[in-house]
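Retry 2 of 3 after timeout on previous attempt. Resubmitting structure tokens to design endpoint.
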């Protein structure tokens, strides 16, 4: 059962009628509902297509946060074979908010680093809702070091509201850990491809997304702060998050225009949560193209490529 977003009332109403008809048919198998159900399902599909063709930035934010959207774990399970998870930063602890390990993407051995929010209450608490602590970023640096040592391309999946801002995280050097992880991305001598699969929030996202190729799903968002946070700072009113989302240019088309990202991965009609397999397959194809475009570059060429990419952001606008 899909969770409907606030702007999907029309679709929810139609789907509710379909569910009622199917319930009646189960109670009385002499009732024929096929034609009416097909008509209603056609109306629902048309409504979804119309709604998603003109989403505003705030609506895209809600889609990016949809609880049934595919998460990092889903992409790893579908795209990475022979996956072996690695844990711990060798300094303090394991951080479950960041999944990491080695595996095969097609015929290519890769290192995978990604933020995982969890899919139910228990797993969300375990994963800290995708908000990594310093040990998570130090684990990422450790794995990037290993990837360079063994010449493994790095794939990172980005889905976080931001790094965890708790007292313990600050005491253990959250800002320093984020800065070192970002710096390690820039200095890597192997390709790094990042995909924003949901939310890309603040330095917590940039820390593992400073890549040669930054790809973004069509209805994902990427921002320096959440719309609610920006509204609280700018207008002292978090209820103006919709205004902040529009002003911040957090959607994929805006970010592609500003050269913050390198490509947009199309989502199925109605968002990735309505076509999980299709969204994951499209993401895998985009990652494969990115790896192929970078695999013949030397370590120095990869570093220069990254440097030039970030120097070009916002130019020629």
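Retry 2 succeeded. Sequence:
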């Amino acid at each position: 059962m899909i969770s409907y977003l606030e702007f999907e009332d029309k679709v929810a109403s139609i789907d509710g009628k379909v569910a009622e008809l199917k319930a009646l048919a189960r109670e009385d198998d002499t009732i024929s509902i096929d034609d009416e159900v097909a008509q209603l399902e056609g109306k629902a599909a048309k409504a979804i297509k119309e709604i998603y063709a003109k989403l505003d930035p705030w609506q895209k934010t809600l889609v990016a946060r949809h609880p049934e959207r595919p998460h990092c774990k889903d992409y790893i399970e579908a795209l990475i074979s022979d996956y072996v998870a690695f844990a711990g930063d060798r300094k303090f602890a394991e951080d479950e908010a960041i999944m990491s390990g080695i595996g095969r993407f097609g015929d290519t051995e890769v290192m995978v680093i990604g933020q995982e929010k969890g899919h139910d209450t228990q797993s969300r608490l375990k994963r800290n809702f995708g908000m990594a602590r310093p040990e998570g970023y130090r684990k990422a640096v450790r794995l990037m070091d290993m990837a360079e040592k063994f010449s493994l391309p790095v794939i990172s999946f980005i889905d976080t509201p931001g790094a965890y801002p708790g007292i313990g995280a600050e005491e253990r050097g959250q800002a320093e850990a984020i800065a070192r992880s970002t710096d390690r991305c820039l200095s890597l001598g192997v390709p790094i491809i990042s995909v924003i699969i949901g939310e890309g929030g603040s330095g917590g996202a940039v820390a593992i997304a400073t890549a040669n190729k930054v790809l973004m799903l069509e209805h994902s968002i990427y921002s320096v702060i959440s719309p609610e946070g920006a509204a609280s700072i700018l207008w002292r009113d978090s209820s103006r998050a919709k205004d902040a989302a529009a002003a911040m240019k957090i959607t994929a088309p805006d970010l592609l225009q500003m050269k913050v990202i390198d490509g947009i991965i199309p989502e199925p009609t109605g968002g990735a949560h309505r076509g999980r397999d299709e969204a994951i397959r499209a993401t895998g194809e985009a990652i494969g193209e990115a790896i192929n475009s970078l695999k013949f570059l030397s370590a120095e060429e990869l570093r220069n490529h990254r440097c030039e990419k970030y120097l070009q952001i916002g130019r020629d606008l």
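Attempt log closed. Residues 183 and 275 are 36 Å apart (CA to CA).
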